[in-house]
Amino acid sequence: MADIIDGKAFAASLRASIAAEVAALSFQPGLAVVLVGDDPASKVYVANKARQTVEVGMRSFEHRLPAETTQATLLALVQSLNADAAVHGILVQLPLPRHLDADAIIAAISPAKDVDGLTVTNAGLLANGLPGLVPCTPLGCILLLHDRLGGMTGLNAVVIGRSNLVGKPIAQLLLQQNCTVTIAHSKTRDLPTLCRGADILIAAVGRPEMIKGDWIKPGATVIDVGINRVPAAAPGKTKLVGDVAFAEAAGVAGIITPVPGGVGPMTIACLLRNTLTAAKRIESRATLVSEV
Ligand SMILES: NC(=O)C1=CN([C@@H]2O[C@H](COP(=O)(O)OP(=O)(O)OC[C@H]3O[C@@H](n4cnc5c(N)ncnc54)[C@H](OP(=O)(O)O)[C@@H]3O)[C@@H](O)[C@H]2O)C=CC1
Ligand SMILES: Nc1nc(=O)c2c([nH]1)NC[C@@H]1CN(c3ccc(C(=O)N[C@@H](CCC(=O)O)C(=O)O)cc3)C=[N+]21
């Protein structure tokens, strides 16, 4: 039976250290979250986020807009958040409704406030190994892996999923850790065989329990990023499951993250960490300017 990573506990200790740092600041960091419509995975995220933002001593600004919001309205909101001195971090929940151009919205976010690490500036800094804002979920995964494995040099890592939000930045971070990285996606041939070669397997697909126990190399470390809401046994009820068939996989893997209680809580803790990082950089720049 695999060792099950307690992401909830790890995230709680991370938040405690963030809260201590926030308490010592001379200003209050602020995080703005924009949710358009009601994507189910986004709703789970938003609910947990607002509470934890306040708990670490930051200000939370929530903007819930109807699914039929126009591109111009959303762009204007992002621009007003860019200009708002009380806001240090901006997160626009993805996916956006189909009639909106997500790339154009993301491009409008000031890179200094881009706590999701999605702008071309932050993605480019990450790809070049330079300091910027790193996407929260990938950062959370690496913190968990680092805690458990220490060094990862030479390990074979397979990342399933190639989104700008999760798959690609995780691959970049694993490469920085000297892993040999393979990125799989919906066009990959014979995914089970590819996965069986992985010392570290990261699933970021969005398909409930797609990765089976016999896809996993015995003793491997499995990180399940998927958040999927499926019907539960009781009629009318739902539950969250990951992209990995947990019960099967836990019998083969060496280390595994559960859903819920694995990567999800780490994502929020890392979002708060990024907001703190962004706030400190923005405020120190403001101080420098006011001194000249
Ligand atoms: N735990 C957390 O904190 C977070 C969880 N999530 C969850 O993680 C999952 C992934 O999110 P995200 O990256 O944004 O999702 P996307 O839908 O943007 O990307 C999914 C990726 O999975 C690939 N894929 C789809 N079907 C298959 C398949 N059958 N075999 C192999 N690859 C496949 C797609 O390939 P292709 O590119 O070819 O289409 C794509 O690259 C979702 O469940 C999401 O809710 C997301 C963010 C944070
Ligand atoms: N721009 C953008 N950035 C994101 O990072 C982003 C996004 N859009 N859209 C939606 C997905 C999904 N996502 C989650 C984060 C945490 C939990 C989370 O806290 N999960 C807990 C919840 C448990 C529960 O409430 O039952 C857990 O897994 O234990 C869930 C989902 C971030 N996403």
Automatic annotation (TrEMBL):
Record CDD domains: NAD_bind_m-THF_DH_Cyclohyd
Pathway this chain belongs to: One-carbon metabolism; tetrahydrofolate interconversion
Pfam families: THF_DHG_CYH, THF_DHG_CYH_C
Residues holding NADP(+): 161-163, 227
Annotated InterPro entries: Aminoacid_DH-like_N_sf, NAD(P)-bd_dom_sf, THF_DH/CycHdrlase, THF_DH/CycHdrlase_cat_dom, THF_DH/CycHdrlase_CS, THF_DH/CycHdrlase_NAD-bd_dom
Enzyme Commission number: 1.5.1.5, 3.5.4.9
Annotated Tetrahydrofolate dehydrogenase/cyclohydrolase catalytic domain residues: 5-116
Alphabetical keyword list: Amino-acid biosynthesis, Histidine biosynthesis, Hydrolase, Methionine biosynthesis, Multifunctional enzyme, NADP, One-carbon metabolism, Oxidoreductase, Purine biosynthesis
SUPFAM superfamilies listed in its UniProt record: Aminoacid dehydrogenase-like, N-terminal domain (SSF53223), NAD(P)-binding Rossmann-fold domains (SSF51735)
Reactions catalysed: (6R)-5,10-methylene-5,6,7,8-tetrahydrofolate + NADP(+) = (6R)-5,10-methenyltetrahydrofolate + NADPH; (6R)-5,10-methenyltetrahydrofolate + H2O = (6R)-10-formyltetrahydrofolate + H(+)
Domain of life: Bacteria
Membrane-spanning segments: none
Occurrences of domain Tetrahydrofolate dehydrogenase/cyclohydrolase NAD(P)-binding (ranges): 135-281
HAMAP family: THF_DHG_CYH (MF_01576)
Function (record text): Catalyzes the oxidation of 5,10-methylenetetrahydrofolate to 5,10-methenyltetrahydrofolate and then the hydrolysis of 5,10-methenyltetrahydrofolate to 10-formyltetrahydrofolate.
Subunit and partners: Homodimer.
Entries under NCBIfam families matching the protein: PRK14186.1, PRK14188.1
Family note: Belongs to the tetrahydrofolate dehydrogenase/cyclohydrolase family.
Name of the protein: Bifunctional protein FolD
